[in-house]
Amino acid sequence: MYLKALGHICYPEVECAKGDPIADIVCVRRKGHQVEDVGVVEVKTSLSLRLVRQACWWQEHADWAGLALPAPKGPKNRDEREKCYGMLQRLGLGLWEVPADGQVELILRPLVVTGRSEALRQKLKPEHQQLGKAGSARAERFTPFQQTREAMRRVLRDSYPVEGCGLKELLRESGHHYPTDQKAISSLRGYLTGDGIRGIRCEQHQGKLVLFYKPTEEEGGMAA
Which domains does the chain carry? Predict the structure, then answer.
């Protein structure tokens, strides 16, 4: 809420590339149709060297980076935290502290260096904004598989709401992230006939797998 109130569009749990660190929150600030800057906020429960290293890594891939931490409790903890302010400032990292009442306080303003965020910007999808709480160990990330799944569901919902569609024909319209069509069909058929794919119902019609759009619980559907 705090970042959104400042005019940022927020995307939780974003991965720039496979194997890279996961950004807790990516913040995009626009002026009209133009992107002004893209920043990353790491949301954690305590300050550590590992966290600082991760935030510094994001400075190479975003226009700015910062940390959001609970406000320290007690004079001793406050004193220890304040000893780190100079280091964070020299590194150009921002710092926000959140006390028990939830009123976020800006401690250090991040250094903004634009022109570094193009690759990260290309990874941002509207679906990121529908995921879990940023910084949570159980937060869901928006992956290429999820992108393929949601594209399939949109085609089923908009073009085949009653009659359904075969997998091969569906992928021809929806597209996919797999290297080849054959790999996509083989992998997705395995998921569909195994544990299933969330939001898609499949039936066998005369030996052919037919797929149907299935509303999720969030969309008002029934629990499985």
Answer: 2-130 (no CATH), 144-219 (3.30.420)
